[in-house]
Design a protein that fits this description.
CATH topology of the largest domain: Rossmann fold
CATH class of the largest domain: Alpha Beta
Radius of gyration: 18 Å
Bound molecules: adenosine-5'-triphosphate
CATH superfamily of the largest domain: P-loop containing nucleotide triphosphate hydrolases
Strand content: 15-25%
Distance between the termini: 46 Å
CATH architecture of the largest domain: 3-Layer(aba) Sandwich
Number of domains: 2
Structural class: alpha/beta
Order of helices and strands: EEEHEEEHHHHEHEHEEH
Strand order of the largest sheet: 6-7-8-3-9-10
Shape: globular
């Protein structure tokens, strides 16, 4: 599996509403690109566009993969709300992609991933009997089991406590090594820990961020990480509507 880079150009529209003008994003192949920005700016819309999900969104300058091949079938997305099937247990939720494609589900891999995300012994539990953070980890396992070269993670760790969040960030960084990952997050520390590249999206386009010179995943305790987190938080605070 070779992961392509992605190029996004032009204005992002949702129906008749222009969300972001003049996007010019080059997401490097096999790396983590992080998108931040105020609520409602269009980050999830952009994620859904990359994932090829249906909807009234469009990017009028185009979305291209660096290898020139279509993206269809090469993107896995973990949506903000997880979108688990309420009637299926955790393991069946994790293997739903294979089932829908008519393939034999890899149950052993699903159980191993559930154990990796800290849900050992919960394979049969339905979403309704899981906490919000546990549901989010089932959705993460479902994304990780797909062998897609491009992965969109839309606020994947938002429901987790701080320690579990750090552990899941490290797990995702390890298991998604070599994939082209788009991480949408509101958490400046998460962005600084995981990103190879990062941008703040606004209605006028994307502003690239300077990141520490070390390779991700970066320690949450390093001075450079904490300094960058603080400065990013101040910038995001300045972008909120009064
Ligand atoms: N199905 C929809 N129909 C109409 N408008 C929508 C729909 N989904 C989103 N929007 C609007 O599109 C805009 C962008 O939404 P989007 O979810 O992409 O923002 P976001 O940056 O991901 O926000 P957040 O950080 O709060 O998740 C918002 O103004 C939102 O109200």
């Amino acid at each position: 599996m070779t992961a392509p880079g992605l190029s996004l150009r032009g204005d992002l529209w949702l129906g008749e509403q222009a969300l972001i003008r003049d996007l010019a994003l080059d997401l490097p192949a096999g790396r983590w690109s992080c998108l931040l920005g105020p609520s409602g700016v269009g980050k999830s819309t952009l994620g859904r566009l990359v994932a090829g999900l249906p909807g009234p969104h469009r990017l009028d300058g185009g979305l291209r993969a660096s290898d020139g091949a279509p993206l269809a079938g090469r993107v896995a997305m973990m949506a903000q709300d997880g979108q688990l099937l309420p009637w299926a247990g955790a393991e069946r939720n994790v293997t739903i992609g294979a089932r829908l494609r008519g393939q034999r589900p890899d149950r052993a891999r699903a159980r191993a991933l559930l154990a990796d995300v800290g849900l050992n012994g919960m394979a049969r539990r339905r979403p309704g009997s899981l906490s919000g953070g546990e549901r989010q980890r089932v959705a993460l396992a479902r994304t990780l089991i797909e062998e897609c070269p491009v992965v969109v993670l839309d606020e994947p760790f938002s429901a987790l406590d701080a320690a579990t969040r750090l552990a899941m960030q490290d797990l995702a960084a390890r298991l998604l090594q070599g994939r082209t990952v788009i991480l949408i997050t509101h958490d400046p520390l998460e962005a600084v820990r995981l990103a190879d590249r990062a941008w703040i999206l606004g209605t006028g386009g994307a502003e690239a961020l300077e990141l520490p010179g070390t390779a991700p995943p970066r320690s949450h305790a390093q001075a450079a990480t904490l300094e960058m987190q603080a400065s990013l938080l101040s910038r995001l605070q300045g972008m909120q509507p009064a």
